[in-house]
Specification:
This protein has helices spanning 37-71, 76-109, 114-138; strands spanning 9-12, 19-22, 35-36. By secondary structure, the protein is mainly alpha-helical. Helix content is 68%, strand content 7%. It contains three helices and three strands, in the order E-E-E-H-H-H. The termini are far apart. Strand 1 and strand 2 form a beta hairpin. The chain has two domains: 1-33, no CATH class; 38-138. The longest helix is centred in the middle third of the chain and has 35 residues, at 37-71.
């Protein structure tokens, strides 16, 4: 390879899904800034780590809370509130698992899976809804 020849990189546009080999990080079709596949794979690895941390934290809370519920004598309102909290952390656990799977997909393929992204956002929305129900039951 000659010293003055520019090496082209493979870029991926998340907006229009174009995959282009160029040295310009701006998509020629839609004008959005693109990322290299190595950048996307690196972000996927970070997403795997974050997903594992979220899953472990939520999973430990769910197991601990279930153990407390099984062996404690509580009123019906306390039990209902505890199960709402469990569903909140269960949804967080599911979001963490989805983030881990999505990150692994992204790290392997160099692009995101739109289906997994929508599942993740749906679970995050569910967490907010359950959190709202939890705060309503608490009062």
């Amino acid at each position: 390879m000659e010293a003055n020849q520019i090496q082209l990189e493979s870029y991926y546009c998340r907006k229009c899904h174009s995959e282009i080999e160029t040295n310009n990080p701006i998509c020629p079709q839609c004008g959005r800034k693109m990322q290299t596949q190595s950048q996307i794979k690196g972000l996927g690895k970070v997403l795997v780590i974050l997903g594992i941390v979220i899953s472990l934290g939520s999973g430990l809370f769910v197991l601990g809370a279930l153990a407390i519920l099984l062996f404690a004598k509580n009123s019906d309102k306390d039990i209902a509130m505890a199960f709402t909290a469990l569903s909140l952390f269960g949804a967080a656990l599911a979001a963490g698992i989805t983030a881990t799977i999505g990150g692994a997909w992204q790290a392997k393929h160099g692009r995101t899976s739109k289906k997994l992204v929508w599942i993740f956002f749906g679970l995050v929305f569910l967490i907010f809804i359950l959190g709202r129900v939890f705060s309503f039951l608490k009062n």
